[in-house]
Every structure is written in structure tokens, then in C-alpha cells.
Specification:
By secondary structure, the chain is α/β, with parallel strands linked by helices. An eight-stranded mixed β-sheet has the order 4-3-2-1-12-13-14-15. It has a five-stranded mixed β-sheet with strand order 5-6-7-9-8. It is elongated and about 85 Å long. InterPro entries: Calcineurin-like_PHP, LpxH-like, Metallo-depent_PP-like.
């Protein structure tokens, strides 16, 4: 069937996480969001905007409860709600609750309050929409995450594990972020998976909060740690008289360089001494920590991960939906914050990403220095529409300045030289009656591969 000019076109966004305690209330992408909504208000298409969960960070409000959180939102972001009202006069806006704003499904008042701004709140875990001769299946995706799913959807008193993490960690980070040398702690909500939070905290402490004198004194030791361990071993062999040639040769070469050689000699000796002490202390510490880890594993204290596999649970869920509803062409979700476009059983699995900052881990070139977490914005909307060749799914990039220019120090850039990330969005795909076209499975897998 050929696509008609009046066929519906869907724009899908998710995971805005607007709102929260103190610093979490800053919405860095608000100008871009307002421009996007304003553009939709003037589109000539038969369009609908679907906000596929976690529009608001209601979990991150800890000082107000219930519908009072909505009052805070409307007072804090009047321009946003007025633009929603204006856009909603031109095209339908449908909002699906996520886990962070599950309370939207718990109180009737939210339906009425959002309707005042022309937003249709659907208090359900999933919805479908027609597209040509096929359908699109929408869900936020937290149902597939055992730490964030709700057994009793819409129950305001049900609190999965993720609720405690966000009310005790994320919201507290929002309250404390302004106290740092730099306002970075609020970005904890951008760290995915959450197992990376300890390394991220260590990284930000070392590169942003540590006293600069301590940091620059530690960098040579940690950067040259592997070499320093080797030097410490060679020095030990020299002192024992087992093998003196390497040390004698190095001393002779450095002696020919005068003051420069003396400075290098001092640095190498200091590094070797420190590395030797660390190795001597680290050997017994390693065995202690190893034994503690085995004990913890025996008791199963940390048996449950805080996060889930970013792809496979959703691919499995898509297969189930495609089998039960053969007319479904697209399984669309959010939650994991990772833009993704993947072929599953000749149909498409698509993740709409997030409008929050994303963090990309990069290890340093050498040594024991903490990794560097490069920030980026991958603001986008997924456009799904019927076309003559089938159902087309594509990402529309929304431009925003690269935050790394202000947030990554020269030291971090130097230590990760050549390793800076270049985030990309997946390419376009088309689901035809005969199956997936325009992109091969290999292309889809490559386009959806998450950044480390």
C-alpha cells in the first residue's frame, strides 16, 4: 500500500528527566526542547508527538509529594508548559509514564492537570499506533528491568530498588552538587550503567576536586606506575647484587646529560621507591580484599545488579510482541538512555535515547590514573512514518554545543589523546512487507553499538 500524504507521522522522544531537587532542576536542553516543540506546532504533517516515559524526574523530588510536584514543575518551567499548550493545539501530544514519573499513573489529578496543557496522559504501560498497514508498539522499557519494574502499576506506594537509588543518591547529588569546586555531581543521573558510578566519582574527584598540587604530584607516579614497578624490581636486584647491569647502564647514560640527567634520575628513583612501597603494601591487601570478596559472594550481598543488559531484554520482548502481534513493525522504548536501531525478526527495535547529558568512558593511555568520562549531548527525536516502500524509522538530530569544551580539562585531554569519543546516531531503516530493507543486520548492529 502506498503512503498517503495524510498518513500519521510520529515523533518520539523520551527520558527528559525534567525536575528534581536543587541542581537537578537545571534543564540544560530547555532552549532546544522549546525550539523542537515550536517547530512541531507549525508542521504541515499529520503528526503526533509521543513522549515515551520519564518526561519528569518525580522520583528526584524529595521535599514535596503527590500532585504538589506538578505545581513545582509548572512554577519552575512556565515557558515549557506554555509551549506544550501551544504545540498541543496543533498536534496531539501523548505522554506515557516511565519509572521516574510513575506517579503520573497513580493520581487522577495528573490527567486533568496535563490536559490543561493539551497533553494526553495515558495511564498504561504500553500503547500502539497505526502506521500504514502496520502498527508501532510503545513502552518506556522499565518493565524489562527487574530493579525498576512495578508489580502493581499505578500504585504510588510501590518502591522498586531504583526508587531508593534515585531518592537517596541522585536527589542528594542534586542538593550537594553546588558545594563542589565545580558543579558536576548532579550529572550522576547521566552515568549508565550505575555500576560505573564509583569509577566516575573517583575520576571527577581526581580531575576536578583534588587539590591541584596533590594531583600534579600524583600524575607522574601513577602515569609511570608500570615503568616504576619495573625500575623498583631492577633496583632491588641491583642492591642484592643479582643483576647490576641495567642500573649501572642507566646511571652512566643519565650522568652524561648533566643537570637534566640528575633531574630524570631523581624522578625515576622517587617513582621507583613509591611504586615499591605500593607493591609491597598491595600484595597483602590484594589477598585480604580477595578473601572479603569471596565472603561477600557467599552471602549474596551484591547478588542483584543495579542495571540490566542494555539490549537483549528488549530484543527478547520485541520478539514476543512481534509473535503475538504480527502487524507490529516497530518496537519503540527508552529507559536505557542509549540511542539504538536494531533489526529483530525483520522488524525494528528502536531506543529513543535521552535528552540528558551522556558520559563516555575513556581509559588513559598508560598507568593507573582514573578513566576520563567525556560528556556529550545526543538530543534527538525518532521519526516513524509510512512511506511507499514501507515503514521508515529515522533519528532526527537536534544540535547542541559539545559540553566537553568546558567540562574536560587539558590534563584529561592530554591523558586520553586520540581517544576522544565521536558519538553518532543510528542510520535510517525501513520495514517493508517483505522484511527489513535499507540497512543490513551488520549495519544495524554497528549503528546501535553503545559507547564504552
Amino acid at each position: 500500500m502506498a503512503a498517503d500524504a495524510d498518513d500519521p507521522v510520529y515523533y518520539v522522544i523520551s527520558d527528559l528527566h525534567i525536575g528534581g531537587d536543587e541542581q537537578l532542576g537545571e534543564v540544560d536542553f530547555l532552549p532546544e526542547l522549546l525550539d523542537f516543540l515550536e517547530r512541531l506546532a507549525t508542521t504541515g504533517e499529520n503528526a503526533e508527538l509521543v513522549i515515551n516515559g520519564d518526561a519528569f524526574g518525580l522520583w528526584e523530588f524529595t521535599e514535596v509529594a503527590g500532585v504538589a510536584k506538578f505545581d513545582v514543575l509548572t512554577d519552575r518551567y512556565p515557558d515549557l508548559f506554555e509551549q506544550l499548550r501551544e504545540t498541543g493545539e496543533s498536534i496531539p501530544i501523548t505522554l506515557l509514564p516511565g519509572n521516574h514519573d510513575n506517579e503520573l499513573a497513580a493520581y487522577d489529578e495528573y490527567v486533568e492537570r496535563l490536559a490543561e496543557y493539551n497533553v494526553d496522559l495515558v495511564r498504561a504501560e504500553s500503547i500502539t499506533r497505526p502506521v500504514g498497514d502496520r502498527t508501532i508498539y510503545f513502552e518506556h522499557g522499565h518493565q524489562r528491568d527487574p530493579n525498576n519494574r512495578f508489580e502493581d502499576f499505578g500504585n504510588p506506594y510501590e518502591t522498586p530498588l531504583g526508587y531508593y537509588y534515585n531518592t537517596n543518591v541522585t536527589s542528594r547529588a542534586g542538593r550537594l552538587s553546588g558545594r563542589g569546586r565545580f558543579n558536576w555531581l548532579k550529572d550522576v543521573q547521566a552515568v549508565t550503567p550505575t555500576e560505573r558510578v564509583p569509577r566516575w566519582l573517583l575520576s571527577k574527584y581526581f580531575y576536578r576536586e583534588m587539590n591541584p598540587l596533590l594531583r600534579y604530584a600524583a600524575i607522574p607516579v601513577l602515569l609511570l606506575f608500570n615503568i616504576s614497578v619495573l625500575l623498583a624490581v631492577l633496583a632491588g636486584l641491583d642492591l642484592a647484587g643479582v643483576w647490576t647491569m641495567p642500573v649501572e647502564t642507566a646511571d652512566a647514560l643519565l650522568a652524561q646529560l648533566g643537570l637534566v640527567g640528575e633531574a630524570v634520575h631523581f624522578l625515576l628513583v622517587a617513582n621507583a621507591a613509591i611504586a615499591g612501597v605500593l607493591v609491597l603494601a598491595g600484595v597483602p591487601l590484594y589477598f585480604v580484599l580477595r578473601d572479603v570478596g569471596k565472603t561477600v559472594d557467599r552471602f549474596g550481598v551484591f547478588e542483584t545488579d543495579l542495571t540490566v543488559d542494555p539490549d537483549e531484554p528488549y530484543a527478547a520482548a520485541a520478539r514476543e510482541v512481534f509473535a503475538e502481534r504480527p502487524e507490529t513493525a516497530v518496537f519503540c522504548y527508552g529507559h536505557t538512555h542509549r540511542p539504538l536501531l536494531k533489526g529483530v525478526d525483520d522488524r525494528v527495535l528502536v531506543n529513543t535515547g535521552t535528552w540528558l547529558k551522556r558520559l563516555h568512558r575513556r581509559d588513559v593511555v598508560a598507568g593507573l590514573l582514573p578513566p576520563v568520562f567525556y560528556p556529550s549531548y545526543q538530543l534527538c527525536a525518532v521519526r516513524i512514518a509510512a512511506e511507499p516502500e514501507g515503514v521508515a524509522v529515522e533519528f532526527e538530530r537536534i544540535e547542541k554545543d559539545d559540553p566537553s569544551a568546558d567540562e574536560i580539562t587539558r590534563t584529561e585531554r592530554l591523558l586520553t589523546l586520540g581517544r576522544a569519543p565521536t558519538p553518532t546516531l543510528p542510520d535510517r531503516a525501513v520495514v517493508a512487507n517483505a522484511g527489513l530493507e535499507s540497512m543490513s543486520d551488520a549495519d544495524l548492529e554497528s549503528a546501535s553499538a553503545p559507547d564504552e
